[in-house]
Automatic annotation (TrEMBL):
Keywords: Riboflavin biosynthesis, Transferase. Catalyzes the formation of 6,7-dimethyl-8-ribityllumazine by condensation of 5-amino-6-(D-ribitylamino)uracil with 3,4-dihydroxy-2-butanone 4-phosphate. This is the penultimate step in the biosynthesis of riboflavin. Belongs to the DMRL synthase family. GO terms for biological process: riboflavin biosynthetic process. GO terms for cellular component: cytosol; riboflavin synthase complex. The active site is at R122. One of its GO terms (molecular function) is 6,7-dimethyl-8-ribityllumazine synthase activity. It holds the Pfam family DMRL_synthase. This is 6,7-dimethyl-8-ribityllumazine synthase. It comes from the Bacteria. 5-amino-6-(D-ribitylamino)uracil binds at W58, S90, F91, E92, L114, V115, V116, S147.
Length: 199
């Protein structure tokens, strides 16, 4: 009799454990689980997209944070064909962007660099020149060009500043990936409408 009671209790305990495990598994699968936000569903492209990422090597350890964040975010937005190019400094980015755009291999080009005081040029001049040249490239070639070329007003060669700008470039990488993907989606729709004679 005692053995039957013990077996019944074991079976009851096992059933309760199984229910708890099922409930936990369901919660982990459920998108409405408190504290866990579901991953956003990004729209897919009708045609494959290929992006060129042109990065300056000046302060590479800071600028590469932009590239790392960009690659992760752009992949989440269904763009996995990204070719990375490195140039000496931001001043060299526009020419590379123009040559890449003229190949017609890329549906978009992204530029990343950090322009700081130093050398024979004022950093504001370099940054303005780079941004204007990148705008000229996209208007001449109709290949969208995105800029994460930053020029901080106050930049010091200190650990605190480097750490701040690493985090800042990571944020910029996500933002430029979002802008790139959304623009490419918009252009894909627009070109489809133009081809269909809707616009």
């Amino acid at each position: 009799m005692n053995q039957m009671l013990q077996e019944a209790e074991v079976q009851k305990s096992q059933a309760e454990d199984s229910q708890v495990q099922d409930s936990q598994a369901q919660e982990s699968r459920s998108p409405e689980t408190p504290g866990r936000t579901p991953a956003p569903a990004h729209p897919r492209f009708a045609k494959p997209q290929r992006v060129a990422f042109v990065q300056s090597s000046w302060h590479r350890d800071v600028v590469e944070e932009c590239r790392i964040a960009f690659l992760a975010e752009i992949a989440a937005r269904h763009i996995t064909n990204v070719d990375v190019f490195e140039v000496p400094g931001s001043f060299e980015i526009p020419l590379h962007a123009q040559i890449l755009a003229k190949t017609r291999r890329y549906t978009a080009i992204v530029a990343a660099g950090l322009v700081v005081d130093g050398g024979i040029y004022r950093h504001e001049f370099v940054a303005d020149t780079v941004i204007k040249a990148l705008m000229d490239v996209q208007l001449r070639t109709e290949v969208p060009v995105f800029s994460a070329v930053l020029t901080p007003q106050q930049f010091h060669e200190s650990a605190a500043h480097f750490e701040f700008f690493r985090k800042h470039f990571a944020i910029k990488g996500i933002e430029v990936a979002e802008a790139c993907a959304n623009t490419l989606l918009s252009l894909e729709r627009l070109r489809g409408q133009v081809a269909a004679g809707i616009t």
